Fold this protein.
Amino acid sequence: MTRYKRSAADAFAEKLALPRVHILFGTRQTGKSTLILGCLPSDALIFNLADPSERARFSERPGDLIALCRSLPLRDVPWFVFIDEAQLVPELFNAVQVLFDEDPGRWRFILCGSSARKLRATGANLLPGRSILHSLQALTNPEYQRIAPIGIPVDALMAEGSLLPPLCGEKARGEFPFRDLEDRLLFGDLPGIATIVLPEERREVLISYVTAHLEEEIRRETAIRDYGIFLRFLRCAAAESGGILNLQALSRESGLSAPTIRAHYQLLEDMFLGYMIPAFSGSLRKAALSSPRFLFFDLGIRNAAARLHLDMDTVRANPGPLFEQWVGGEIYKRLRYKGSGTLSYFRTSAGAEVDFIIEDEGLIHPIEVKWTERPTLSDAKHMLAFMKDHPDRARRGYIVCRCPYPLELSESVSAIPWWGL
């Protein structure tokens, strides 16, 4: 089986040289364990708390970790200790602190988790001042093999003004097989999905993720007793993904109270299954909306959770909203890796909107998403009005679309193809 290298691998391996506790969070099936194992020396100590016996041992006696690590012989290089699904035994974070404070250079701890809920609920010690937090997302554009139109060198897309400035400077690894846009809108960008050739197998994997795998994860993480009710909420939340959060409407549709729905959304965020995109906070317009939008972390999981038919007819029936969510997800993932910049949206009660807004290093980068191959300046009318309200910070706007190559539509508006992000 071919193993594909993740873009985050080199940066993660370099950071492991730092004498800190390394904590890696991310949704299941994004490849966290594979990434970590590829960076570890052969004599690393590995504990997988998904194993019931391992979990029971450390739950009863978290001090065993201290005794075991202290028993390792002294040497010039650190011992690597990898604890997978560390959130299942929060007490181990305290044990790690004891060892780190005792001798920061003797051990190199790597804690990995697919949920922050139990850590948040127990007020777990995330080792402030001692740890470096990392995240691993679903695949991003630079991780696929790049295919540019004939006569358009891929390197030309890195020229100033042709890409979103906060996303520039990332080298395309190009190890995962290229997939066209419609395929990614339907099946998403999980690494395991990207390497499956047969659509039938992809469908089965995604459905299994939502039914069997997600149910197991939620039952283990929460005290939810009626899982059927939660599944009804999950289906509603998936169907509404990308839209502005409306707790009252969701309450009517799902039969759950608004506080319960709010708690369920928090659960999805804690499990890294989705995230809120806030409304732009710097607007002077009184009519600007303030409710956040919610996006699932991956379109394939979103489509399966919404119980959509996982075939191309689903995408072709209404591709615009899926494309908008895909662009938002791509930007979100890249900003998380970049480690700076915030993502928001802008909309007024009258319907004027800018799909996404990046704020970074004092500048604002408004973005419109259009399912068109021939963008025009009329596609940017709301964006231009927004830029007029923020002339000092919003100097250039972008239309992300399906144009075959980057276009300059005006002195302040560029159109860029989806594969050029």
User: Anything to note?
Assistant: The chain has two domains: 8-135, 141-420.
